[in-house]
Design brief:
Layout lengths: L3 H13 L2 E7 L11 E4 L8 E6 L8 E6 L2 E7 L4 E7 L10 E6 L2 E6 L2 E7 L7 H11 L5 H14 L6 H7 L3 H11 L10 E8 L9 E7 L3 E5 L6 E6 L4 E9 L3 E8 L4 E5 L7 E3 L5 E7 L2 E6 L3 E5 L5 E6 L4 E9 L4 E8 L3 E6 L2 E7 L4 E9 L2 E9 L4 E6 L29 H12 L1 H29 L12 E8 L4 E10 L9 E6 L5 E3 L3 E4 L7 E10 L8 E8 L7 E6 L10
Antiparallel strand pairs: 1-28, 2-3, 3-4, 4-5, 6-7, 7-8, 8-9, 10-11, 11-12, 12-13, 14-15, 15-16, 16-17, 18-19, 19-20, 20-21, 22-23, 23-24, 24-25, 26-27, 27-28, 29-30, 30-34, 31-33, 31-35, 32-34, 35-36
Helix pairs in contact: 2-3
Length: about 600
């Protein structure tokens, strides 16, 4: 019984899962990110291959690997760390096989038919004129290496144009290594080169899947370049306020396009075809760690374990909170089903799938996912490919009979709140009233404003009358802000009268106050009709009690007036009218 239980649980979990476990290689030795992984039909035979830019150990053994099925087909050595990888069609020649562009340092290596085809180098940057002069003096042996270092340090602290890589490396050397470095490089021209931080593709003039695409690259010098797919010349150049980290491109270059860029300053910028600088700016609450586009909306993952949705103009739509930090993000675009979602890899070895802000599926992985890619692999359309932190390769296939629930699987409000109300159709009376309001809008507005002003005027007049006659239970004096309310208790003929007085001042106490009662002495009698009020501390309630005796047996009642005065003054600060109830008891003569 105990031996078969784990097997039954495994079978049940596989039956309930929406994915088939196609392949898992824990020792594939792949060290890569989502920006360096792509799926492409490299041979034009209808079978898509997996192209991976492997970072190796970070300093050596960088390779461009191509997988077919579960086996490694080819691998090419890369000279530097890859920062991005993409597959694109660069011409209309038959057969229509895509090229692979690998961004590495200041270069883009283009591979056609898995062979090196072209190498593009970023345009050189302006070199500091003072730096050129200093190195020319070192070339002519006019200054020694120590003086050269001092002059370069002075230039670095004041110059607007940064120093070249050669000068920065020279400033890092030990004194005994400087002379050898100067003799080795002083006769070579100085170049200042930037590096590529992200890469993407943009359709040239058609939106078809097999249309020719341009390369879009972001650089460390805070600029975007759009390259011609055949001549690899710069078609457009755009500036950014900060160095780009993540990028998404949509549209066609010859028609209209949008470039969404997440930069290192924590902001997200949106550029359009006719703008050389960002048109819109999004400022998330924390640093972005991933950016993808789903339909016309932008989904951004942030360091505060949250996922945010924005429109193309930067308006925030929704926010979803995650149980763990984000490690990678990707898009699930199942074109045969017309289904799109966001795949979010988390640090708890899970991949969450979101459709808008609703969590529709959770995929458990054997290790933390570092890169994720969804698309056609081989001849299977719904393939999910992931690499793990330990270098493993995970391949899962979406079941063809699977149906994703649109409801959110996370705990929260019930689905009934998202169901639209059955609003009845517009009646003829409603339509007639709407037409009347449209035709007489000016007159109706004027009548409404007149009634409103009349109401305000009457209220103001009544308020002024109350203040002038001191009939309000609240004091109108700025120097003595007081509040009073009265409570009458009893059935008669004896009543208990309680006055609750409060000083509403912020910090000033009220002193030298007294209370006086005015009443019909033929109906009522009071033992004490005059009180002295103690010091009133602001904010505290002071109850004052007295007793009223009803003298009439005819079942009539009257008003007792209460005045709060300052000693030595005749004008009351506060006035209250107490409606006495009818005595229900027997009046003793």
């Amino acid at each position: 019984m105990s031996a078969t239980a784990p097997l039954e649980n495994k079978e049940n979990s596989e039956a309930n899962s929406k994915w088939l476990d196609a392949h898992y290689d824990p020792v594939a030795n792949l060290n890569t990110f989502s920006s360096c992984i792509a799926l492409a039909d490299l041979n034009g035979d209808g079978e898509s291959k997996l192209v991976v830019g492997d970072l190796g150990t970070g300093g050596c053994n960088m390779k461009l690997k191509v997988y077919k099925g579960t086996t490694l087909m080819t691998d090419n050595t890369l000279l530097d760390l890859p920062t991005g990888l993409t597959a694109f069609l660069m011409d209309q020649n038959e057969p229509r096989t895509p090229a692979v562009a690998v961004a590495s340092g200041p270069f883009i290596y283009v591979y056609k038919n898995l062979r090196p085809y072209f190498k593009f180098t970023l345009p050189p940057l302006e070199v500091n004129s003072l730096e050129l002069e200093v190195w020319s003096q070192a070339k002519e042996d006019k200054i020694d290496p120590v003086t050269l270092k001092e002059m370069l340090e002075g230039i670095r602290g004041k110059a607007e144009v940064p120093l070249s890589v050669r000068s920065l490396k020279f400033l890092m050397l030990e004194p005994q290594e400087m002379e050898t470095f100067v003799n080795l490089y002083k006769n070579q021209p100085i170049k200042r080169q930037t590096v590529i931080t992200c890469i993407g593709t943009l359709k040239k003039n058609m939106a078809d899947d097999d249309a020719v695409s341009c390369l879009v690259i972001g650089t460390e010098c805070m600029e975007l370049y759009i390259l011609d797919p055949e001549a690899f010349t710069v078609l457009a150049k755009m500036s950014l306020p900060s160095a780009p980290a993540f990028m998404d491109v949509t549209g066609q270059f010859d028609v209209e396009f949008r470039v969404t860029v997440a930069c290192r300053n924590g902001n997200i910028y949106i550029l359009r075809r006719d703008s050389k600088k960002p048109k819109y700016c999004i400022e998330p609450s924390s640093q972005p760690v991933g950016l993808v586009r789903v339909n016309k909306n932008i989904v951004v993952g942030c360091t505060q374990e949250s996922l945010h949705g924005y429109t193309q103009k930067g308006k925030k739509l929704w926010t979803a909170f995650l149980p763990a930090p984000i490690t990678t993000m990707g898009v699930m675009d199942h074109k045969t089903r017309g289904y799109q979602a966001v795949l979010v890899g988390l640090a708890n070895s899970k991949v969450h799938m979101y459709r808008e802000k609703n969590l529709v599926n959770i995929v458990k992985t054997p290790d933390v996912v570092t890169s994720i890619c969804f698309g056609r692999y081989g001849r299977e359309d719904g393939t999910l490919i992931m690499t793990t932190k330990g270098g493993g390769l995970v391949i899962k296939i979406l079941k063809r009979t699977v149906v994703f629930d649109e409801k959110d699987s996370t705990p929260g409000p019930p689905m009934a709140q998202s169901i639209k109300l059955n609003v009845p159709k517009k009646t003829k009376l409603y339509v007639d009233q709407t037409l009347r309001e449209r035709e007489n809008a000016v007159g109706m507005h004027r009548a409404f404003q007149m009634d409103l002003y009349r109401l305000r005027l009457n209220a103001a007049r009544a308020y002024v009358k109350v203040l002038e006659s001191s009939l309000s239970p609240m004091s109108s004096s700025v120097s003595e802000p007081l509040r009073m309310n009265a409570v009458v208790q009893g059935l008669g003929p004896s009543f208990k009268l309680t006055l609750n007085i409060q000083n509403t001042s912020a910090c000033r106490p009220a002193i030298n106050l007294c209370i006086s009662f005015l009443y019909d002495q033929s109906l009522y009698s009071m033992k004490t009709a005059f009180f002295k009020i103690p010091l009133l501390v602001p904010g505290l309630n002071y109850p004052i009690d007295t007793f009223v005796e009803c003298l009439s047996d005819k079942g009539i009642s009257d008003i007792i007036k209460v005045f709060v005065l300052r000693e030595g003054k005749t004008a009351p600060l506060l006035t209250a009218h107490i409606n006495m109830p009818v005595s229900e008891g027997i009046v003793m003569s």
